[in-house]
Amino acid sequence: MSKEIEQRIAELREKYKALPPEKKAEWERHIKKRNFLNYKKIELIKSELLRLEARRAQLELCDKEKELGLIEKKITCKKEKLLRYLGKQLNH
Question: Which domain of life is it from (predicted)?
Fold first, then answer.
């Protein structure tokens, strides 16, 4: 994955870890209440990312470099999409 995306993800993780659980739950309720369709899109992307990460792990064990590269590109695209959706929701 590109260094910029990795850096943005690391920053989001640090911000998210610093928040108390109550604030995390409040953000999720806010996103869900404000725009339910975007909330569902975010949840769908998260489940797709989980599936792709599992597939990537399988391919690493099988040493299939060509397919592994394709999966990593898909993961990068999904993470960028997730960051865009989260950014839209948290900035409003």
Answer: Bacteria
